[in-house]
Amino acid sequence: MELDFDPTAFSGHVPLFPLPGSVILPAGLLPLHVFEERYREMLKDALAGERLVALAHLLPGYEEQYEGSPEIDPYVCVGRIVMDQELPDGRFNMVLAGVRRAKVLEEDRSRPYRVGRVQILEDRCPEAFDKAETARQLHHFVDQLPADFVRHADRMGRALLLLDQVPTAPLGLVVDLLADTLDLSLATRLRLLRDERVPSRVAILTDRLRERARTSGRVPRPIWPPPFSAN
Q1: Of the four listed, 77, 91, 129, 189, which is most buried by Cβ atoms within 10 Å?
Q2: What residue ranges define each of the domains in the chain, with the CATH number in brackets?
Q3: Dihedral of the CA atoms 224, 226, 230, 231 (nearest 10)?
Q4: What is the pTM of this model?
């Protein structure tokens, strides 16, 4: 499976691929075209190693420093390279599958590209949180969405099937997969990436679904029970 990841076998270090305007979540898929020389080298090294790359979001103001090492958001998504194609001129096409949230603790800038020492962030969800009922309500909300809010209909179908299997299927993973299929803003994706608390991500996604339902003239009933704080 593209999401298989063994934290005990992970080196703790991963190449950082900073991009403006791109955020991938665990369970998400992102096709990328790699053309800069430093990132071609990064990709070759990653393919020869753990096949992992962490997609990082460049912070505002990066433009003047882009050729160097502009600041990135410390919260990244570690992704596995599940498809790669080297073109005749040395450029690459690849598909990155998000596997885990992580936080960059330290950067090694001794190479043409950056390598991060990262802390893997596992999902947190209190026992009292009703995962099955929350999944049922999310499914209800999604059923009312207009088609133009869905980016990937096939992956949406997979997400809905997994929603019906919660709590056997992990709710956090399903929420991430669901979010990846939707036309969410960059700000919303960043909020979801930065939060390992499953109830909090459910609340963020639910608010966005309600908002989209209102603009389409449909108002879904609220989630009950409401998400509990993970603190």
Answers
A1: 77
A2: 7-121 (2.30.130.40), 131-215 (no CATH)
A3: -150
A4: 0.85
